[in-house]
TrEMBL record:
<keyword id="KW-0812">Transmembrane</keyword>
<keyword id="KW-0472">Membrane</keyword>
<feature type="region of interest" description="Disordered">
    <location>
        <begin position="434"/>
        <end position="464"/>
    </location>
</feature>
<feature type="coiled-coil region">
    <location>
        <begin position="133"/>
        <end position="195"/>
    </location>
</feature>
<feature type="compositionally biased region" description="Low complexity">
    <location>
        <begin position="443"/>
        <end position="464"/>
    </location>
</feature>
<feature type="domain" description="Multidrug resistance protein MdtA-like barrel-sandwich hybrid">
    <location>
        <begin position="95"/>
        <end position="133"/>
    </location>
</feature>
<protein>
    <submittedName>
        <fullName>Efflux transporter, RND family, MFP subunit</fullName>
    </submittedName>
</protein>
<feature type="domain" description="YknX-like beta-barrel">
    <location>
        <begin position="485"/>
        <end position="558"/>
    </location>
</feature>
<feature type="region of interest" description="Disordered">
    <location>
        <begin position="637"/>
        <end position="662"/>
    </location>
</feature>
<keyword id="KW-0175">Coiled coil</keyword>
<dbReference type="InterPro" id="IPR058636">
    <property type="entry name" value="Beta-barrel_YknX"/>
</dbReference>
<feature type="transmembrane region" description="Helical">
    <location>
        <begin position="38"/>
        <end position="58"/>
    </location>
</feature>
<dbReference type="InterPro" id="IPR058625">
    <property type="entry name" value="MdtA-like_BSH"/>
</dbReference>
<dbReference type="GO" id="GO:0030313">
    <property type="term" value="C:cell envelope"/>
</dbReference>
<dbReference type="InterPro" id="IPR050465">
    <property type="entry name" value="UPF0194_transport"/>
</dbReference>
<feature type="compositionally biased region" description="Gly residues">
    <location>
        <begin position="649"/>
        <end position="662"/>
    </location>
</feature>
<dbReference type="Pfam" id="PF25990">
    <property type="entry name" value="Beta-barrel_YknX"/>
</dbReference>
Length: 662
């Protein structure tokens, strides 16, 4: 359609151009005809022919202008795309190669089979390495025995040294004890008197003058009856209303006299009384006025709360006086029922017995010191002997340990190598190539490598390498759970590509249009020979079927933007400066639009290369003037036509004389 319009516009422009030139041409021709009669007939024929062509051209232009092929502003859908030719890739590819040599004993799969990650692929003869593992076990056992022997020898030496050290420590403890006994004896000599450690009345004496006692011996029993306590039962409900610190009035049963005391304790134990009653005991302390003895009974009142029975008085303090040191009693200063005070001297020890204790303690201390010196001498002798062999023993243990560790490490390496004799599927997928089978012998190999991956780029060179690697591999597995392709987008367009954008994919193999999405945009660009850098864009094909296979050539279009039912014009109708020529009367004198058209500024949007979206400036149905193919090319065509006309005119005038000569 656009080519036809282009021809129409060229003819129309040419017609306008010819109209202006004909006037000049006919003036010159009329002058020529007056001077050359012979040429007049020829010129008339030529003029008739030119006139016929001109009229036909005008009619053709008019017919084209009135036809329904005029360019109009219309609504349409526009998709802005980035296109590239590429190939289909599997989600992942793995080429299986062997790290070991040997005969293949088993290969339980065939080309085309679907395998899961971890499935057995090949079993390789491992008899040689299994023999090496058995030898390694023997080496480990020997090294372990040597190491244990070295440890035991070293431990014996350590135990001997520890025994000597223990003897010294025991002797040192014995010296400390003897020293303490000696110090205690000296202290006893400094203080031969025994003193009471309580205040009260002596109720019983347990020693007599001339007795020999030890430290801690009970000398006498003592009571303090200056204060008495009595536990009186109160009904449980009443006892709960009595509080510690309250005053209590006591009435003695024997004579009815009264004495005041203070509540010091309310018992927590609930006891049963007569007549299904319960009670708690309340403890009351009183100062003894002298008429109360332990064992007397009394009743009590706390405020207006009365007890339900009498209680019995007890001495507040009943204790014993003990000897602070030992010896022979030379004098005794107390008697039963006598009153003593805390710190009062109650007896005197014989100094002879104390001196005997000092002498005995000193002898024990000297013996302990001598034992300590003997233990130290024995320890030094043992240490000297041990020191001579320490370096040798430690060296033997270290050497045995290193030998044992090396043997264990060697076996671990062999066990790790043994794993390489059983080759399992590294990924789940389909076996597309099987180059090795049961019975084949393998030479030395290298680690398996993945030719494709789920992300990243795949250039033509890497695909070539992949093919070479596949041919030398034992087997090749494709993971076709997903199919992908990689587009190389130039540096001017890559900024418009975003992950998640829709991609349309077509191939000559099938009529189906597949859909994909942009999955990854790599920043690892490659500079081309034309100086333009391209960036790999990975596309995930989401609706592939069995007809689409890895390695197929496809055309992929990334949909950068998409608009629907918008005003659009052909790109060829858009002038520089975003203007178009719209049919209508000019509104400005300097408007250089063709006759019958006016210049209009437009605002544009998305473009698919053929049409471009227009936001403003024109309306649907308006007719446009196409500028495609005009400009310098049209001017050149007009200039060439003008030159031919000048040549024709010049040839006619030059040929006249020649003709006249005839």
């Amino acid at each position: 359609m656009n080519k036809f319009i282009l021809v129409r516009n060229k003819i129309k422009d040419f017609t306008f151009f010819i109209g202006g030139k004909l006037k000049i041409f006919f003036a010159a021709l009329w002058k020529l005809m007056k001077n050359h009669k012979i040429w007049s007939a020829v010129i008339c024929i030529v003029l008739a022919l030119v006139l016929f062509i001109g009229i036909s051209t005008v009619r053709l232009g008019k017919k084209l202008e009135d036809s329904n092929l005029l360019i109009k502003v219309e609504k349409r859908d526009i998709e802005e795309k980035i296109n590239d030719s590429t190939v289909v890739e599997p989600n992942n590819e793995y080429s299986i190669t062997a790290n070991v040599t040997g005969e293949i004993l088993d290969d339980p799969f065939e080309e085309g089979d679907t395998v899961q990650k971890g499935d057995l692929m090949y079993t390789i003869d491992a008899s040689t390495i299994e023999n090496s593992i058995q030898s390694a076990d023997i080496a480990i056992a020997k090294a372990k025995k040597n190491y244990d022997d070295a440890i035991n020898e070293n431990s014996k030496t350590v135990r001997d040294t520890a025994t000597s050290a223990s003897s010294v420590e025991s002797a040192r403890i014995a010296v400390d004890k003897a020293q303490q006994a000696y110090n205690d004896a000296l202290k006893a000599r400094d203080d031969l008197s025994l003193k009471s450690n309580h205040t009260g009345i002596v109720t019983e004496i347990h020693i007599s003058e001339g007795d020999t006692i030890a430290a801690g011996t009970k000398i006498a029993d003592i009571i303090d009856n200056s204060k008495l306590k009595i536990k009186v039962p109160f009904n449980t409900a009443d006892a709960d209303n009595v509080h510690v610190g309250e005053a209590a009035d006591l009435t003695l049963t024997k004579n009815g006299s009264s004495v005041r005391g203070v509540v010091t304790e309310i018992g927590a134990l609930v006891e049963s009384g007569s007549g299904f009653t319960s009670y708690k005991k309340v403890t009351i302390e009183v100062d003894n006025p002298g008429a109360i003895s332990s064992g007397d009974t009394a009743t009590a009142m706390v405020g207006d709360i009365a007890c339900n029975d009498a209680g019995t008085f007890e001495n507040l303090t009943e204790d014993s006086i003990t000897a602070s040191s030992g010896g022979k009693i030379s004098s005794l200063y107390i008697s039963e029922n006598s009153h003593v005070y805390n710190g009062e001297k109650i007896a005197m020890l014989d100094s002879d017995s104390v001196e005997s204790q000092i002498s005995s303690a000193l002898l024990s201390l000297n013996d302990a010191n001598q034992a300590l010196e003997r233990a130290k001498i024995q320890q030094n002798t043992s240490n000297a002997t041990t020191s001579l062999g320490d370096d040798k023993l430690n060296s033997a243990v270290k050497t045995a340990k290193m030998t044992y560790d090396d043997a264990v490490l060697s076996k671990e390496k062999l066990l790790k190598q043994l794993e390489d004799y059983t080759i399992k599927a590294p990924i789940s997928g389909t076996v597309v190539t099987k180059n090795k089978k049961k019975g084949d012998n393998l030479g030395s190999g290298s680690s398996s490598t993945s030719s494709y991956s789920s992300s990243g780029s795949s250039s033509s060179s890497s695909q070539l390498t992949s093919a070479s690697a596949s041919s030398s591999a034992m087997a090749v597995i494709y993971d076709m759970s997903e199919l992908k392709c990689t587009l190389n987008v130039d540096e001017l367009d890559v900024k418009n590509v975003k992950t998640g954008q829709k991609v349309t994919i077509t191939t000559d193999v099938t009529d189906k249009e597949y859909t994909g999405v942009v999955e990854n945009i790599s920043v690892n660009g490659t500079a081309g020979s034309n100086g333009v850098t391209t960036y790999p864009v990975k596309v995930n094909i989401i609706d592939f079927d069995d007809a689409l296979l890895p390695g197929m050539n496809v055309e992929a279009n990334i949909i950068i933007s998409s608009v629907h039912n918008v005003l659009a014009i052909p790109v060829s109708n858009l002038n520089r400066g975003n203007t178009v020529y719209v049919k209508g009367d000019k509104t400005e004198e300097n408007d250089k639009a063709p006759e019958g058209y006016k210049t209009v500024s437009v605002t544009t949007g998305s473009s698919d290369g053929e049409y471009i979206q227009v936001f403003s400036g024109v309306e649907e149905g308006e007719i446009l003037y196409s500028t495609a193919g005009t400009g310098n090319s049209m001017e050149e065509m007009m200039q060439q036509s003008h030159e031919r006309m000048k040549d024709s005119a010049g040839g006619g005038s030059g040929g006249g004389p020649g003709g006249g000569g005839m």
